[in-house]
Amino acid sequence: MPEPLLYAKTFVIAMVASALFVLAITKLRVVSAFRLNLVCIIAIAIGVGIGFIAMRLQWQWPAASALDRFLTLVLPAVLVIESITNHQRVPDRIKWGVRFCFALAAARILIHQSVYLTDPDDGKRWQFDCILLLCAGMVTAVWWSLGRLSRRSQDTVSISLALCMSIQSAGVSVMLAGYIKGGAVAIPLTAAILGTALTAGYAIRRSQDKLPLYPDATIGISVVSLFSVLFIGHFFGRLSAADAMTLMIAPTLCWISEVPVFRNGSKWGVVIVRLVFVATPLMVVLLASKREFDRNYAPLVEKRGVNIFFEQTTPAYCTALKCSPLP
């Protein structure tokens, strides 16, 4: 069963832990762009780890489910890759080639040993391979477009805020679709990224050399986290493909702020435009998910003696909802 107080406590603890780490390091010494990215990566790792402990989130090793593979393989891998590729001596072609290969590998890792690969429908395996390729292309495109917008507009915070909104909306949508644990993982992720982005933005504003400093790693980790939550929610939960794609693409609406009528406005006006345009499709998806939950799952919740969240991995739950067992 969802525990709002536990989720709220987890969010605060993870955000404060990440923020304090960034503040402590940047307060002690002036950092370069590369070192600031390293500080952001470590801060996100600390916040996420402490958040998982506070939420009492458990995972298995060797990984037995897509969520286990995300927590033990995909998330640590993107932290390492961003630690390396954000070095200024790494050419852009190599950097984006590595990131595309990682996006393709991440989708394949998450789906590993699932029925989609071990027992595909006749003649459908090649179609599923095409879906994985399209997923990798979409992740790389969103990643590249937001990184380019960050440098073009010299933005350090608003894009990360838009990504945090998307990740948390994805988590809530996955939870409303019946996969509580899969959606709850978004809470410490959002909190750690939010705390890191806000304090990194403060450190950049405080630095004497502002222009070369962009926390690109925060954007990369956020995009991969958003994709992973949506991918798990769609293929191992009941999140629809349309909702998943809408939530994945929504952060790119930040580009609307580059329209001349908005771009020439005040700095805070640009931030508000970005957040409003990103929040609009997120709210539509959340309302649709809530309506779907009220129609399909609420009667089961209200039924005496039945708790669909508590019993979501039991045969009774699977029979009631006529769905495949959740990981």
Automatic annotation (TrEMBL):
Record's keyword terms, sorted: Membrane, Transmembrane, Transmembrane helix
Bilayer-crossing regions: 6-24, 36-54, 66-84, 96-114, 126-146, 158-180, 186-205, 217-237, 268-288
Species annotation: Novipirellula caenicola
Keyword Membrane among UniProt keywords: yes
Keyword match Transmembrane: yes
Protein name per its UniProtKB record: Uncharacterized protein
